[in-house]
Each structure stands twice: as structure tokens, then as C-alpha cells.
Amino acid sequence: MKMTFRWYGESDSIPLSYIRQIPNMSGVVTAVYRVPVGEVWPREDIARLKELCDQNGLEMEVIESVPVHEDIKLGRPTRDRYIANYAENLRRLGEVGVKCVCYNFMPVFDWLRTNLKLEAPDGSNSLCYCHEELMKLDPKHLSLPGWDESYTQDELQGLLAAYANVSHEQLFDNLVYFLKGIMPACQEAKIDMAIHPDDPPWDMFGLPRIISSEADYDRMFAAVPDPHNGMTFCTGSLGAGRFNDLTAMAAKYAKAGRISFAHIRQIRYEGEKDFAESGHLTSSGSLDIYGIVQALVKNGFVGYVRPDHGRNIWGEDGKPGYGLYDRALGAAYLNGLFEAAEKELHT
Ligand code: DNO
């Protein structure tokens, strides 16, 4: 495995010079953020990111995300132009040595929480999700933690109305159409696509979600068996659905060579559909993090890993889920688990 760290480019408050000091850090996971979704990323912007990584002795082999334009998800006639742009981005990223691209196919919102700063007894805070609270929101006047700057009310209402006519089947067909459209560019650029699961793994506000469970992944791989069609194994997102058996899924998809990227974080179940994010240790929450790592290692996983969402600790007031300290602690812990699992395998 290669340990990586998400970095939000030059506007990130965490410098690359700090990231490189985290033990075993091979590189960063980043993106070009200033280009509107669906457009082609200028080569200069990609080269600038690469140069900054090089200067800091860090690789740039994973991009998270090249976002998918809503017209592609909606299956609108304009999708072909956006798919061509997407393929061009993949070719440009391949030119600078990118090997894996994380993306998602969730309509409108690619994550949802009801509180970004749930305070824990130890004074740390983290993101959490309470399903009942979310259901109380009025879809006609949506205000969601972390999302209010991303869409105007008009844009949001327009998108919700457009998706009202899109069934799960149609969304799935649109995903398959998209994947078939970009696979030739993936082959050319030697890039693995890594679809991120739905976060959390169920529908909301009438928006369909189609990558929430093992059955969903199986259906996608069956429809597009190309080896460049892979997944981001996100423990927190998949784990929020109690119907997902994470150790079994980690084993199955690692064995099939489908896991190109793993986001590893811990959550604590608070109710059937409620959870709070916690520190990364198995003992800090409800998921068997060590069991998942063992399943990955035993089944030949060789992809990228990043410590996902941490808490805010030591007075840090980081971007929700993306502070320095707790993610660095998470990386240290995960390094230990991988070392142990690998030793266990060879003794
Ligand atoms: C949130 C992230 C997501 C993720 C995208 C991938 O913290 O896990 O925003 O980057 O869903 O496309």
C-alpha cells in the first residue's frame, strides 16, 4: 500500500512541508479546484500542483476528485461534451504520472452531515449525522451544514426538480454510459477510476443513490468489467450502512483487484441511521478497523490509502474532517496496522 494525505492545494492551511514529515507518507491526494465542474483543467494548473509536490518530495499519483458534471448524471444531451472533457482531463493527468482518480456519482450532494462540530467529552469535535434531524429539513428551503455556499436556492431547487424524474435505474444507466465513455482514456492514460460510495449510503430528499452496497458494486463491475473500473473503499461511508459487512467486502474486492484507493476512518453508531465520526482506532467506534486492514492485506491489496476524516483536536479549527493533527495520528495508527497485518501474513 501507499500511504497518502488529502491536500486541498495552495489554499489549504496545511503546508506540504508538514505533510511530508508524517511517517511513511508517499504523496498527496489533491485536485485542481478553481476550474468549474465539467471543464478541462489547464495543463499549467496540473503542472503547478505536480511541481509543488515534487519540491516537497511527495508523489501526486491520486486525484480526488475529478467531479462529474450533473448533466452526465442526469443523462442530458450535453453529457457527451462533458464526457469528452472528462476523458481529456484523464489524459492530461496521465501525462504527469497520475494513476488513480477518485470520483463519485451522487446527485447534488456528495456527503451530508447534520452537525460539523459535535463536541465530545474530551473537548475534541467531529462531524455527525442524525437521520431524524435531516428528515425534518424542508427540501424547498434547504440549508445544510457545509453546503450553503455551494448552491443558490434557485440552483438547488432546479437540480432537485430535474432529479425528480430520474429513477435509480436511469442513474445507473447514466453511470454505465459515462464509464464506457471514459474507459478508452483510462487505458491510454493508465489510470484506474475509483468510485466513492454514497455518503451516507441511502437516498435523501428524493435523490437516488446507487453505490451504497455490495450488490450495487457487483452490478457496476458486471456492467463495466474493464480492470480500470475500480472503487474507493471508504469505510466510513459504507460502514454507516449496517447492512454492509466491511471485512467481507474488503476481502472480496481486494481479491478481485478492484480496490485502487482506501479511505479509512472510524464511526460510532448512535442509532439505526445515526453516527458520529471518531478517532481512527478500532476501540474508538463501531467498525473493526484492524479486521478491515487485515482483510485488505491478506487479499493482496496494493492500492493507495489515506486516513480519512479526523476530529479537531489540540485547539485546531480545521476544515471539517480535514485538520492536520488527528489525520496524522490516524496515518500513524494505520501504518502500524498495515505493518502488523503484513508481518502476520508472512509468519
Ligand atoms: C468528503 C469526501 C468526499 C469525496 C468525494 C469523492 O470528505 O469523502 O467529498 O472526496 O465524494 O468524489
Written account of the structure:
- 38% of the residues lie in helices and 18% in strands.
- The chain is α/β, with parallel strands linked by helices and 347 residues long.
- The strands form 2 sheets. The chain has an 8-stranded parallel barrel, surrounded by 4 helices.
- Helix 11 crosses helix 12 (325-345).
- The chain binds D-mannose.
- Residues 64-65, 102-104, 110-111, 196, 321 line the site of D-mannose.
End-to-end span in angstroms?
19 Å
Beta fraction? 15-25%
Please name the fourth-level CATH homologous superfamily: Divalent-metal-dependent TIM barrel enzymes
Bound molecules: D-mannose
Helix content: 25-40%
Which residues form runs of ≥5 with pLDDT under 50?
none
Largest sheet: 8 strands, parallel, barrel
Layout of helices and strands:
Blueprint: E1 2-6, H1 16-19, E2 25-30, H2 43-55, E3 59-64, H3 70-74, H4 79-95, E4 100-103, E5 115-119, E6 125-129, H5 131-135, H6 153-163, H7 168-189, E7 192-195, H8 214-223, E8 229-234, H9 235-239, H10 246-255, E9 259-264, E10 266-271, E11 274-278, H11 289-298, E12 304-307, H12 325-345
Parallel strand pairs: 1-2, 1-12, 2-3, 3-4, 4-7, 7-8, 8-9, 9-12
Antiparallel strand pairs: 5-6, 6-11, 10-11
Helix pairs in contact: 4-7, 10-11, 11-12
This protein binds D-mannose (DNO).
D-mannose (DNO) is lined by residues 64-65, 102-104, 110-111, 196, 321.
